[in-house]
From TrEMBL:
This is Nicotinamide riboside transporter PnuC. The chain crosses the membrane at residues 22-48, 68-85, 92-112, 118-137, 158-176, 209-226. InterPro entries: NMN_transpt_PnuC. It holds the Pfam family NMN_transporter. It comes from Streptococcus suivaginalis.
Amino acid sequence: MKTAVTQVPENMAAIASRARKMGLLGVLQAVVADLFLGRTLFQWSYLLVLSSVPFVLEFTNGAANHDWVGLFTSWTGIVCVIMVAEGRASNYFFGFLNSVIYFALSYQNMFYGEVMTAIFFIVMQPVGLYFWLTARVNGVAEEEKTEFEARKLDLKGWIKWLGFTLLVWASFGLIYQSVGSARPFRDSITDGTNWTGQFLMTYLYREQWIFWIATNLFSIYLWWGTSLHMQAMYWVYALNSAVGWYQWSKSIKEGQVA
């Protein structure tokens, strides 16, 4: 019986085979389609308005020096989560950029829980992309389409992932306590919610959005008074998470993510 691990070489070969079949031009066309095509006027307006928030804040806050790093971190994060809500695999490119920069900012501000979360996200971006491409190669005939099948948790799934969240929270809390963190179990809250949210996202479960909302609300508190860009980013995240929940719930009823 094949497992997910033993299927990795086979799936990678299938992805590579599909890419060779498409050719360089076909792959580029698929990337462009995933980035730009298939949006309604409302979706374009939503993307442009929310992704402009970091720029508006940067150039209207009256600060003497511009926070370009915070601006870029906030912008890439907002674009990433909107693309997740739309069901676009290119979200992982923006997610990787955002995670690398967020790691540096969190380390600079000594938010060690956020540092560990950023490392986890950096690792999970290529892993998530692998799962999404595998689902597309195995289940979607036309590469340029961005649809995939969203799923929802049953009671057993809820118990499993809530237990996983508590395990991650407690484990990292003990780790931070061992290295002298002043508030170890506060710092590990976002580890629990982020890890679960990322795994549910990778496996295409709608309930990821509940864990993202919890992460976003706590992160607003964490960054309060420290970085205006990070606060704004998480407020937009929270709004987009609510929209994502609605879109994925609707897509489950319709049988696909549009």
